[in-house]
Amino acid sequence: MEEISQKDCRGRMGGTEEPRMESFFDFPPSDDKIAPFVKAKAFGPSGVPAPHRERSRGMNFDLSEEQKMIQQMARDFAQNEIRPKAAELDRTERHPAEIIEKMGELSLMGIAVPDTYGGGGADTVSYVVALEEISWGCASVGVIMSVNNSLVCDPLKTYGTEDQKKKFLVPLASGKKLGCFGLTEPEAGSDAASQKTTAILQGDEWLINGKKNFITNGNVADTCILMAMTDKSKGHRGISAFIVDCRTKGFSVGVVEKKLGIKASGTAELILEDCRIPRENLLGEVGQGFYIAMNTLDGGRVGIAAQALGIARAAQEAAIEYSKTRVQFGQAISKFQAIQWMIADMATELEAARLLTLRAAALKDLNQRYEKEAAMAKLFASEAAHRITHKAIQIHGGYGYIQEYAVERHFRDARITEIYEGTSEIMRLVIANNILKGK
Ligand code: CAA
What we know:
Elements: H1 6-12, H2 36-43, H3 65-92, H4 97-105, H5 124-137, H6 139-159, H7 162-173, E1 179-182, E2 198-202, E3 205-216, E4 223-229, E5 239-245, E6 251-256, E7 267-278, E8 282-283, H8 289-325, E9 327-328, E10 331-332, H9 337-365, H10 371-396, H11 407-415, H12 424-436
Parallel strand pairs: 1-4
Antiparallel strand pairs: 2-3, 3-7, 4-5, 5-8, 6-7, 9-10
Helix pairs in contact: 3-5, 5-6, 5-8, 5-9, 6-7, 6-8, 8-9, 8-10, 8-11, 9-10, 10-11, 10-12
The protein binds acetoacetyl-coenzyme A.
């Protein structure tokens, strides 16, 4: 094993060459390990640790000015344009086209796509903070935005050719068109490699046949990133990714599902019957589709974690406000410890979920591995959202169970975050696999 000296260790951890303490792991160090002047500087004459800044550079948890601006812009938009319509959208189950159009104008539909390709030119952290705000406004709008950004623009940006980017990415990232991600099939849910949809190269065209289901935006999308089997004998290595124009002959929308929550977001079946697309609409290489899908879903999971944060925060805020005005036994229920403990748990879980989500996003921005961190963020944020929305209803009592109060919707909306883009069980599997492989 490589030997790391204390000096090297200090360098790697961002410290200085100044001899401050013998070991980072002996704290406080024994007298014989430390020069008196160093001890006085770091610990003070009494041996009590001096202020934190003497020993550590700390960690920066602050958003940059640009990230804060994007967050504020998304918050204002959610407050003014989305929240007032959220209950109506849930009731009518209509696609919020007018909201999505305005979000396109604000670069929210392709935040992390370079502006040369029609996007916002920002980073993943900006995407995550904006998505939390939009989902705080309405979870359905949140997932429409998440799918377009994470599952459609991102793979086009990463794997697309220059021509594909000009033709497909520019209108999608600028919000003029909307995308969907065609991976799931009736028999390929958690087992995503079991693709039955086939694509066969015939001359200059791919002939695609098969069925996809539970496709978010499927009923309203213009473009689909579609996975299909090009060589069954190779298993997951025989899957390829394609860019399909949804107006292509042979491409149709089947059942549009009735759901428990996120009702204004369309969830549709896609039917491909002798659908022919140009040869150049292959995304990436032949046989690269499963890896593209998995890599894309890593980013998607960070987005769903952010969606869960937005839903949970909306529920928490509603519960806190309600607890301050609801009087029982002669006082506001917020004065009761039973309620205070619930509020404390909600706030702590929300904060923990946000930190996990931002960390995964930051790793993506640094081009580091973040598969495990994305799964942890989605797992924790989605299950926290479940618990937080559950408590929000509990604090509201009977009023939380009726549609007049928003927490009833938040509870229904939160549930899906534990299921789509990988169930909690798949998230645990991904996390465990990474840990056991030492990643
Ligand atoms: N990035 C890149 N490559 C990856 C990867 C990742 N995150 N995860 C796995 N791979 C690679 C592996 O390294 C392996 O490579 P080799 O070919 O070199 O061996 C290959 O992919 C196969 O990996 P596994 O053996 O682990 O694959 P598996 O078949 O056992 O499946 C799984 C792994 C994690 C269970 C995966 O199938 C999965 O994530 N399932 C859940 C599917 C899912 O999330 N569906 C959501 C649908 S989309 C949706 O919901 C969108 C919407 O509309 C909102």
